[in-house]
């Protein structure tokens, strides 16, 4: 019992004032800040009380995440685990082994190739005949000589008498074999047996292009350059006489560079496995053109566009690019008299298809009959009217396709209202730069479309429901010089505008409102005007 | 044997003919060109329900027997609600209206479009014969309303009968061209060329605010397509120009942009979700802004009655509520104060379908 009494005596310490002071100080200075700090770390904004409850719960009962109360999954924790740790070490090893094996295989193959390759033959040097021995017809000698001719071995081709002289019967010199091509093939052993043949080769007329004795050009050609040789049959005038279907016109204003330099850039003159005697295995239509036109050498040069990206990734596609002849639908590949090597002048070329209602293949959308539209209306948009100055249809549209609606070159909204757009963002402002029309509320100069001094252009384009240019204007053709259209397109329904003109103003009554008038000199008050908010 | 078979066949045929005639009796019109009776009302049909507050009357007479022709329309007028008074304010408050025709000797049909009021309407035709007798004939029709509780469900006596069927149209085709002459998606340059215009022109010409397709007479191609919806399957084939109900999809075909905005919102007004745009908006024309069937405050309180009875928003110490009408809207000085000045009618991201969150809403008017 004495011991117990002693222990009870110890408890007196708790009652003493000193101890209580020390303990309170301890709690205030050490424990509360620690709890506060813990709470601050685990807090959820605005709901600190719940968090404090949660801390108690965590410390004394079970360990849970504070987020469990709300059913919140903490993504931050999930992300802390690095993904690289999850990978198994065996996979990496396998990959490295495979790489090493591939390297070894490559080396082996290289060695095999070197061993198989034939050794280069030593060149035979041929001594030319002295000039005196040539017949007089061939003098003076030209740059390139046929080898037998150079050696003076006439007997290989021509029939010879006992003295070694060529026999002449009438005007002809008879050959050792009946046909010319048989004679040529006896030395030049590459027989031309591919899919498509050049017609002279089918007939065996080697001498149509080549001179058997000598020439100033390489390969013993009869003309000065390759294109000139090809023209001798394929020019439009001669092709008519010889009844050849394939025509190339080189004497044109706009030339295709590779055509002008050398026909052999693309064609094989003898045979080929591909259509039109082309060299490459590429399809002769689009891929063939893109092969060169997708390479942009200098980004500063604007003319060269990466066509491959433009055509294949465009959102709005032009069907003519994918139709039967692809690029050749509009362009004349060998060159033409009209800009950009088109078959016809710019606008006429476009109207050759758009002279009827055209249906888009992808969307089934119907495009209007543009030729009829232009014929019916008197006033045309300037790019269409002055084609050479302003650029025709291509001034606004990109005929190869574009990411913007209607295949336009720059941004243009499709919706009836332009919400959140600023002045100058729409494509029309690239040419029509008068921004005061749409920024000044009251003017007497900026526009003629005003009621007194109230700017009606401003009124139609401001606020929540500002309208696009297309709502009132027709960008192609119109009855009025101000290019006001016949219809407004509101979500698929065409409502007539019914525009009328007077000397100092006009009026219109579309579906948007009743008949409203405007006058520049004496302003008109219209019935049922729309309030500020819904202009 | 043969005779028996023939007899049975004849009997079947008679039964068939009678049943067909019985079915036809419901929607039957008297189509004879020169009637035995001197006066006959062809349209409207007895006990039919109407939805728009105009109706056209067609009367056929025997021109040799009749001198004078007169129409009287009786309205069933109870004491008007305050909001109904606003609607009928400009119209005459009489219980009946009169109209007298001028009779020509060669004209057998006479047409006239008249105003209707909600509930029962009786149309009486008074004709005076050459002998000096007066003939009285009358037709009873009912004008129903989609929102007014009293006229929402007409009594069972009245039936949904429509005019535009091939049989009925033969009568009018002597004078009127009954074909649809609209192009799809292209409105008339000259409105009066529309075939609908001649008979139905009062639908759009009576009021100030006109819905664009109705004003341009794109009736059959835009809305009255002859299709029926989920809620009116029962009427399929009853009329050439029946419209689908709910008509939401028909509206959204043009108002695409609204739909895009609304789909992502948090709270929705029930009729909007159901696609019943017809309940608040009149698709043809209306004296009120946004083609509302009544002025905004009166329209909302037809359904949300408790807001009027109890008061709305906050109260003073003496119990007076915050005003909801009768003042000018301080945030929008051109407009009257109404439910729309705080609430968004269709849908909203904020609680109570408010225009803005609570913290910003009060500041719109109470600026300090």
Main attributes of the structure:
heterodimer, A: 535 residues, mainly alpha, three-stranded antiparallel sheet, two-stranded antiparallel sheet, 21 helices, 33% helix, B: 368 residues, alpha+beta, Immunoglobulin-like, five-stranded mixed sheet, 13 helices, 12 strands, 18% strand
Concise description?
Chain A has 21 helices and 17 strands. With 535 residues, chain A is mainly alpha-helical. Chain B has a five-stranded mixed sheet with strand order 2-8-7-4-5, with no helix packed on it. In chain B, strands 1-3-6 form a three-stranded antiparallel sheet, with no helix packed on it. A two-stranded antiparallel sheet of chain B has the order 9-11.
Helix content of chain B: 10-25%
Taken in chain order, the helices and strands of chain B follow as: HEEEEHEEEEHHHEHHHHEHEHHEH
Low-confidence stretches of chain A: 66-81, 531-535
Straight-line N-to-C gap of chain A: 99 Å
Please tally the helical runs of chain B, counting DSSP H or I stretches of 4 or more residues: 13
Quick one: biggest sheet of chain B? Answer: 5 strands, mixed
- The oligomerization state is heterodimer
Rg of chain A (CA only): 44 Å
User: How much helical structure, as a percent, in the residues of chain A?
Assistant: 25-40%
Strand arrangement, major sheet of chain A? 15-16-17
Approximately how much beta-strand content do the residues of chain B carry? 15-25%
CATH architecture label of one domain in chain B = Sandwich
Low-confidence stretches of chain B: 23-33
Please report the total strand number of chain B as a whole number. 12
Number of alpha- plus pi-helical segments of chain A: 21
